[in-house]
Automatic annotation (TrEMBL):
<keyword id="KW-0560">Oxidoreductase</keyword>
<dbReference type="InterPro" id="IPR008927">
    <property type="entry name" value="6-PGluconate_DH-like_C_sf"/>
</dbReference>
<dbReference type="GO" id="GO:0008677">
    <property type="term" value="F:2-dehydropantoate 2-reductase activity"/>
</dbReference>
<dbReference type="InterPro" id="IPR051402">
    <property type="entry name" value="KPR-Related"/>
</dbReference>
<dbReference type="InterPro" id="IPR003710">
    <property type="entry name" value="ApbA"/>
</dbReference>
<dbReference type="InterPro" id="IPR013328">
    <property type="entry name" value="6PGD_dom2"/>
</dbReference>
<keyword id="KW-0521">NADP</keyword>
<comment type="pathway">
    <text>Cofactor biosynthesis; (R)-pantothenate biosynthesis; (R)-pantoate from 3-methyl-2-oxobutanoate: step 2/2.</text>
</comment>
<comment type="similarity">
    <text>Belongs to the ketopantoate reductase family.</text>
</comment>
<comment type="function">
    <text>Catalyzes the NADPH-dependent reduction of ketopantoate into pantoic acid.</text>
</comment>
<dbReference type="GO" id="GO:0015940">
    <property type="term" value="P:pantothenate biosynthetic process"/>
</dbReference>
<dbReference type="InterPro" id="IPR036291">
    <property type="entry name" value="NAD(P)-bd_dom_sf"/>
</dbReference>
<protein>
    <recommendedName>
        <fullName>2-dehydropantoate 2-reductase</fullName>
        <ecNumber>1.1.1.169</ecNumber>
    </recommendedName>
</protein>
<dbReference type="Pfam" id="PF02558">
    <property type="entry name" value="ApbA"/>
</dbReference>
<dbReference type="Pfam" id="PF08546">
    <property type="entry name" value="ApbA_C"/>
</dbReference>
<dbReference type="GO" id="GO:0005737">
    <property type="term" value="C:cytoplasm"/>
</dbReference>
<keyword id="KW-0566">Pantothenate biosynthesis</keyword>
Length: 306
């Protein structure tokens, strides 16, 4: 099997480097700037679980000369439309697309472009960022990808993707509830990102401040209420874990959106926060904390673009 990883950034570069190190047939689709950087310095992962330095197979959009079995889509939401265009020649009738993006909006966009039958649901949990020299830096050691058919069924292609991904230095799991997993992950991430970005600190720093713990609780309450109003049930084990993780004293946990914001990089305000407000508004529901977070992020984004 051959995999095309679209985007050799924090997530695509991380999982792709692990797969390449485990001798899977991996190609990265990159744009010219990242191509030059990786050709010069290699693809470098710095991780508490062990560093990786490889010289991977790289192609640009114009060099795609055939279809791939798996496409792992690892771009930011604001780069999605152009990435779908750039990778189109790599998608054939048998190709499966696994998107690592956070949120849910991308699922509709990808389905519209390539058909829902090409798409598996996918959720990844990892904490990685790019440093100034383009190396991928992992915080902590958790690294897992879950994927599944959108209707929860088993299939031969799911089993084949699992065989390809497993035993490559990260956890790769089949999920028969992948859509719910994705919504739950979005719930966690939207609450975490809101807490980090509005309060400008890690979970531990926020809950140590006067009123911080209560704010974190109200943030999870509001995000989960919006998700439920949008029609998605959240499981009790998930909620118990979310409340625990997001109020954990001393926790250094931050979301990737916060790390991007602190580094002065572009963020996914619309996909991670704005889309929840759209869904709340469709149900005539007020979401005052999310509205505050969104406005805060928009001010940051506007300053970045000026
Ligand atoms: N980082 C994390 O810890 C986690 C992130 N996520 C989610 O994963 C998704 C990807 O995020 P992340 O990996 O962090 O983002 P990064 O910005 O680190 O990496 C994205 C990469 O995509 C590349 N890219 C963009 N457009 C194209 C294109 N048309 N063709 C080829 N490459 C392209 C960019 O390259 P270029 O240099 O050319 O701009 C960049 O290297 C996001 O939705 C994020 O929310 C999910 C879980 C954890
Ligand atoms: C859930 C979490 C926080 C870690 O994978 C994440 O997805 C992110 O930081 O973007």
């Amino acid at each position: 099997m051959r995999i095309l990883i679209v985007g050799a950034g924090s997530t695509g570069g991380f999982f792709g480097a692990k797969l390449a190190k485990a001798d899977r047939d991996v190609t990265f689709l990159v744009r010219p700037q990242r191509l030059r950087l990786i050709e010069q310095h290699g693809l470098c992962v710095r991780s508490p679980a062990g560093d990786i330095d490889i010289q991977p197979q790289l192609i640009t959009s114009a060099q795609i000369n055939g279809t791939f079995d798996i496409v792992l889509l690892a771009v930011k939401a604001y780069a999605l439309d152009s990435a779908l265009q750039d990778m189109a020649a790599a998608v054939g009738p048998e190709t499966v697309i696994l998107p690592l993006l956070n949120g849910m909006r991308h699922m509709d966009v990808i389905s519209e472009k390539f058909g829902a039958e090409r798409l598996l649901g996918c959720a990844c949990k990892v904490a990685t960022s790019l440093d100034e020299s383009g190396r991928i830096i992992q915080q902590g050691t958790f690294n897992d990808i879950s994927f599944g058919e959108l209707d929860g069924s088993d299939s031969d292609r799911l089993a084949a993707v699992h065989t390809f991904m497993r035993d490559a230095g990260f956890d790769a799991n089949i999920s028969n509830t992948i859509l719910r997993d994705m919504w739950e992950k979005w719930t966690l991430l939207a609450a975490m990102g809101s807490i980090n970005c509005l309060m400008r600190g890690s979970i531990g720093e926020v809950v140590a401040a006067a009123g911080g713990h209560e704010f974190a609780l109200r943030m999870i309450d509001e995000v989960s209420a919006v998700v439920r109003a949008a029609g998605q049930e959240l499981s009790e084990p998930f909620l118990t874990q979310a409340y625990r993780l997001l109020t954990l004293q001393g926790s250094p946990q931050t979301s990737s959106m916060y790390r991007d914001l602190v580094a002065g990089r572009a963020i996914e305000a619309d996909q991670i926060i704005g889309d929840l407000l759209v869904r709340a508004s469709a149900k005539n529901m007020e979401a005052p904390l999310l509205a505050l977070v969104y406005a805060h992020l928009l001010v940051y984004q506007a300053r970045l673009h000026n």
